[in-house]
Amino acid sequence: MPSAKTIDLLNELFAIENRSLPTYLADACPWTHPGDEPASQALVHILADQQQMVGRLGDLIDARGGRVDRGSFPMEYTDMNLLSLDFLVLELIRCQKRDIADIERIVPSFGADREARELAEEILGSERAHLEALEDLVKQPS
Fold first, then answer.
1. What share of the chain is helix, strand, coil (3-state, %, to 5)?
2. Distant-in-sequence, close-in-space partners of 14: CB < 8 Å, separation ≥ 6
3. Nearest alpha carbon to residue 54 among 25, 23, 78, 27
4. What's the pTM?
5. Can you say whether residue 111 is alpha, beta or left, with left for phi > 0 and alpha for psi between -120 and 50 degrees?
6. I need a labelling partner for 92 at 20 to 30 A (CA). Which of 21, 73, 115, 137 fits?
7. Residue 68: how many CB atoms within 10 A of its CB?
8. Which is it for the CA torsion 32, 75, 15, 131, positive or negative?
9. What tens digit of pLDDT does each residue of 24-56 get?
């Protein structure tokens, strides 16, 4: 029987993935201009990956008899409505680094729970790859 602590940690991961800045921006529709296609594509890819992980986390929480806590978006995101995507790439990088640090803190907390730890490690690897893709956008010439 999984502990309440494990369910809480899985819900923390769920909230990180489900209430990420890319998820928020999917509904906020940032302003774009010609040349933003690589950033738009990166955002779509990140969102798809995160939603897949949300589904897997939700399934695991449910399978273990827990209740999914969807979390809420950070209030700071509301300041990002109607901003341009090229500006938001820097915010995405900042938030991505914060999320990675949170996930890095959570991963070892699963201890011997191999299934939960492996899923958390997969999420961490995915988020690190997303960060690298976002940082590559900044390095590209305009």
1. 75, 0, 25
2. 54, 57, 58, 61, 68, 69, 70, 71
3. 23
4. 0.91
5. left
6. 115
7. 18
8. positive
9. 998 888 888 888 899 999 999 999 999 999 999
